[in-house]
Fold this protein.
Amino acid sequence: MLKLDHLTKQYKDTLAVDDLDFEVKAGVVTGFLGPNGSGKSTTMRIIMGLDRPTKGRATINGKQYHDLASPLREVGALLDAKSVNPSRSARNHLRALAASNKIPYSRVDEVLDFVGLTSVAGKKVGGFSLGMSQRLGIAGALLGDPGVLLFDEPVNGLDPEGIRWIRDFFRTLANEGRTVFVSSHLMSEMAVSADEIIVIGRGHFITSGTVDQLTATAAGTVLVRAANPDSLASALPADAHYEALNDGALRIAGLSAEDVGNLAFAAGIALHELTPQRASLEEVFMDLTASSLQYGHQTPGVPS
Ligand code: ADP
Ligand code: MG
């Protein structure tokens, strides 16, 4: 079980993690979603005892990382795949990890085989591609057969086949009852690989839920075709946001289809189409995190 209690990390001028307080469930894949710079890696590093919180704590099975007697048996992580000593062979890298947690060497060969690195086990890690390094990182995470697993942006640098492999792998781990916590800055990636999603921006919690819940709570838009689009536009409330599309339709934000229909009726404007549009997952994510982006940009028309 993985739990954050008011976890906070302040670097000099940057509040990297701001009072994060949640539990990550076992048996499902939980996506940890936020724009670049929102504090995902810092949170994961703190969980793994690689950084100290300014306030609060992160616990694995009720204990902070440095209080775990045999940490690799309780939690495994793929954080920075390239942080491995380049002059070591893959096998020796894993053997060193295994020895530090009294894990038998036979397990090293098992995990190497599982990630498909057996044939290059004796080669220096320095010559590995990013994809191979990711696989080695996964092997290291699995070494102690832990119940809690963390993956920081695991899809970065993988080819499509690798991405499919890793998604199936997360699914398998969750089905085995493990806690699987995966970060990404891409909503589209989380939508296909995670069951539950926790969204953060600028270090703080924004929302959580299933993909469907997040989409449902996001404001959609209404696509409307009127006999006279200009009169419809002028009949809208002054603070309504709309975008005039090339084919004469209007895309209206902040009003329901019912509102738009009633407005048009009151103004005596015939409508040819009135379609509520669900926000895309990417739009939901941009919406949720827009005010948290460090370097935002303005889009004309309908605010996203
Ligand atoms: P993410 O993984 O979501 O992209 P990070 O956790 O890497 O975000 O970074 C969160 C914020 O903390 C960023 O503003 C980043 O610049 C800052 N930060 C991260 N690590 C350090 C550090 N060691 N020293 C100072 N600032 C840091
Ligand atoms: Mg990161």
User: Anything to note?
Assistant: Confidence is low (pLDDT under 50) at residues 294-304.
